[in-house]
Structure formats: structure tokens, C-alpha cells
Known about the structure:
- With about 300 residues, the protein is of the alpha/beta class.
- Helices cover about 40% and strands about 15% of the residues.
- It contains ten helices and eleven strands.
- It has a seven-stranded parallel β-sheet with strand order 3-2-1-4-5-6-10, sandwiched between helices. Strands 7-9 form a two-stranded parallel ribbon. The chain has a two-stranded parallel ribbon with strand order 8-11.
- The two termini are about 35 Å apart.
Amino acid sequence: MRVLVTGIRGLVGxxxxxxxxxxxxxxxxxxxxxxxxxxxxxxxxADLTRPDEVATLIRWAKPDxxxxxxxxxxxxxxxxxxxxxxxxxxxxxxxxxxxxATYAPKAHLVFVSTDFVFDGFTPREYCYKExxxxxxxxVYGASKLAAEWLVRQYPGPWAIARTSxxxxxxxxxxxxxxxxxxxxxxxxxxxxxxxxxxxxxxxWAHDLAEGIRLIxxxxxxxxxxxxxxxxxxPYTFGQKIxxxxxxxxxxxxxxxxxxFRQIAPRPPxxxxxxxxxxALLGYxxxxxxxxxxxxxxRSA
Length: 300
């Protein structure tokens, strides 16, 4: 099977390549916005916001499946520039769907989405299920929900993988993530303030990639929540990083939405239920401390 991975140079794209390369004999094909020298996979640069470049990409790749990971994911930047967000998250997805419908209509399309399609006004112990009603608060969440609806109109087989607060390490990264920011601060002996009143199911990029691989391997369709197994606030997540690094957890300072107002509104509680993915895919993500230990061990 020929699998095209968009955004393969990013955190999730890199881990998706590794997961597929380790467990399958699939031919992995990657794309990103800029050229890449000597990649370990076939690679074709393309700007997904340009229909002509996407059509050329799909004609070249001839994919049997596509993992569409590339996106604008900086939530505050999306809020400050909605047209750019819409261009990268919605228009790009439409361009990909149009090209697939024309040149590879049987390709299995797997689209990576977000817990931010929900408003988060639920009890803290509740985890959103796949059929719960979306109600995004931010431009970013709205753009991903709009892209989801486009994917649902795709005439070929499709799946949507929603995830939450993805973290980890990878080469070529052009931006950081919550794990990298906290680790850098703690190893420098600096304190770091994190929200105590936002709740997520943090997801190791390795686990998300494995969930994507399982969807592809089983040719699964529909919506799946592919996230971590534990509900955490950024504050408790940071304390667990401190625990693994062996530094004092007092360097992690509590912060609330009243103390610091972010540019884009965030759902107060957007944890995802992974029961469907566990039952139908055999998805089995690492607990938070185990994931952090694995990352730290690889980067030590």
C-alpha cells in the first residue's frame, strides 16, 4: 500500500512515518511545504493551499491512503489571522479532497482533527465521545470542524482522528510543544506557570501515530478519538515532567484563566474518550508518566 503523509516533517507526521515503517511494508510517501534533502522516504514538496500543486502531488504519489496531518495548529495565531487559518486548514483540505476525487478516488483519507471542536462546558470527569455535538469556541476549532465536514463529503473511504494536546520530540521541528517548553525551563532551573483550570487528555505523538496506523491498517472509517488515557491539566502534566526529570515540582507554578487571558478562548475541559478506538482498533496509549519517561530516555 502506498501511503501519503502530509506534514511529514512535523511532530505527528514524523512519528506516523516511524510507526508505519516499523510495523508495515507500506511504501511511505511524504509531503511538506519546502524541499527536504535526502529523506528516508519518497518526498514531493507541495503547498496544499494551491490546487495545481496538490493535483501534481496526487498524480505523482498515486496513493492508496492519505494521512492528512498538515495544518495550522497555533491556536492564538489562528485567532489573530482567521483568513490564513482558514486557508491552511479548510482550503488545503478541500484541495486535497478535490485532487483525490479526481486522481485517486478509492484512496482512504484519514484526517487529523482536534478536541477543540468542543466547547468544553462539561463536568471535569466527562470525556467527549465521537458522536457528541461539536461547538468550537475558537477560530482554530471552527476551522478544523469545517474541514471535518468537508472530509465527511469525500466520495471515497474516510476517517477522522481527533486528538488532544499532542507532545513529544522529533527532528526538523519548526515549533515547540508543551513538553519541550516545560522541559527546557525545568532543566534551566527556571519556574514555569501552567493552567490548573484547563483539562485535556495529553497525547504522546508516538501514540497518535500508532492510532493513525491502526486506522489505515484496518481500513477503518468514521470518527475516532485518538488521545492519551488520562485526564490532566497542564499543571499536573508539568508536575509529571518534573517528576521524571528529577527536579522539584515546585518549579511548576499554578495559573488560572483569571490570572492570564489567552488570545483565543479555550475549552475549559475537552478530554476525549478513547473507548471506541480501544474496542475497534486495539488502540493502547501510554500513561502520561510512562510516555514522558520514554521520551526522556530517548533524548537523554
